[in-house]
Every structure is written in C-alpha cells, then in structure tokens.
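Our platform keeps sequence and structure together, in a single record for each protein. Such a record has a labelled line for the sequence and another for the backbone structure tokens. Nothing more is needed to write down the fold, since each code stands for a local backbone conformation. For reference, a complete record is included directly beneath this paragraph:
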Amino acid sequence: MSAAPKTIAIVGSGALGSYYGAKLARQGADVRFLMRADLEAVRRDGLKVREKGEEWHVQGQAFGSVAEIGPVDLVVIGLKTTANADLERLIPPLLHEKTLLLTLQNGLGNEEILAQRWGAERVLGGLCFVCLNRVAPGVIEHYGHGTLSLGEFGRAPMERTQAIGAMFSNAGVETQVVENLITERWRKLVWNIPFNGLSIATGGRTCDQLLADEGVNAQVRALMLETIAAAGALGHAIPQNFADYQIERTYSMGAYKPSSMIDWQLGRAVEVESIWGEPWRQGNAAGVALPRLELLYRLLQQLTQRS
C-alpha cells in the first residue's frame, strides 16, 4: 500500500481548508497553511475549531507565501473557484516530481484545469458534504455533517487514493473512496445548485427559511430534478429519490447559511460559473432542457455583478 503524504500544503485556508487541515494537523500530520487575512491571528493563537459543543485548538503552521512553504507531497486546494487564475502562481513552488494535487473545490471543471496545466496523473478530487463557517480570524465553526468523498480524476481508485483516504479517516473525517469522481460532483450539485442559488435569489434566506416557503421548496425540488436529469444524460446516473433524501437532510441543518450566500452578502465573488454555469452548459450540450437552472444562472450573473 502507498504511504500517506508526509507533507501537506493547504492552499485556500478558508473555512473548508482550515477545518480539514486542522483535523490532519491535530492527528500529527505536517500541514502547512497558506494564509492571508488570518495569517497573524493563526500565528499568534493557532486554529480553533468549534464542533459538537466543544472547542479544540491546533497551533498550525501558517505561511504568507508558497515560497516559504516549499515543495510538499500533497497540495489540498480549498480556494474559491473564482480565484482559479491564481493557481498558475501558487502551485509551481509547491511541486516536486511526485506531488499530488487534491481539489476540494465546488462545481465542475476544477480537475480539468489542474490536469491540463500540471498533468492528469497528479490530480485527485474530493467532495466535502459539511456545514462550516469561518466566524472569526482563525476560528471555524462546524455545524454538522463532514463526510469527504475522495476519488481519482479520470481513473479508478489507486493505492494512493486509499492511503490518502485512510489519512483523513484516521484524523476523524468520515471518508469514502469513490469509483467515479465526476458522478460524485454531480451528486453534490444536486444540493448546491438550489440551496446556494436560491439563498441569494431570495435576498439572503437561510436553508430553513427556503424550505419553510412552499413555493421556494417546490423550486428546490424542481432544480434538483433538473440537475439529476443533466447528470443522467452525461452518464452519471442519480436516482430521482436522491432529491427527497437531500431535502430531508437539509431540515436538520436549521438556519444554515450556504457559503455562496455568505460570499454574496460580504461583497465577495460568487462561484457562479463552476456551480451553475458549467453544469448548465454541459447539460444543455447533452440535449437536456434546463429552464429553471438557466433562469437561476442568468439571475445570479446579474445579482453578483461587481460595479
């Protein structure tokens, strides 16, 4: 069996990258966090995670540049997809001959970007089904869930996939290695497309508010079914009752704020193309009518425009 990576860089140390990196560091892994806004706070106070009614702390190795981090065995990418242009600058100083690239980003197209630039043989992807928010510099709140689905890009799982999965599992992250990474990406979009999108389109409603409104609840389900239809046309079969499952599990999230809504409220760039645009384009090219997804995509383009 392949050995787990000995050195790990977290590129994109927001809520997602900080949480999973902190879990690995707590288990004793050599994790190096690339940070900007939280750099001084984490250097001073470490990373704090609040979950299950408790708070725990890791000191964390925080760096202000990739040059300071240097080459590592595994780069975990948690950047918002709106910052993908920065990868050209951020990735090269972290590479040695066998460095692996694991993207935990939302939506479609991210593995392709990495593969085209640095070789498909390096690329893995992960899907994080987790409710997280960064509530203060260096402080992450975990509200629920937390499963990581891990897979190879364009290949069946390998020994290295299992080794990385075991590394996350040993750190307390419920991890599953999946046969088809892109199918899992579509499964996550079944939730992300309606809840992230409608939370913005309705002016900032939380998940419980979206579900409590009968009309919006119906739109959630309709968008889920369109997403499932697009996935199926592209060879990624998802049963229709998966929509029911996703809606039911969302009730347990309470007043959760989807990450795209938080970005929108704070005036940050929203991942419109990777979460809504690319799925619509791929589904449309496969001949699937996606009127609700197209309408939501066009609306979000307008609502998230920067002056």
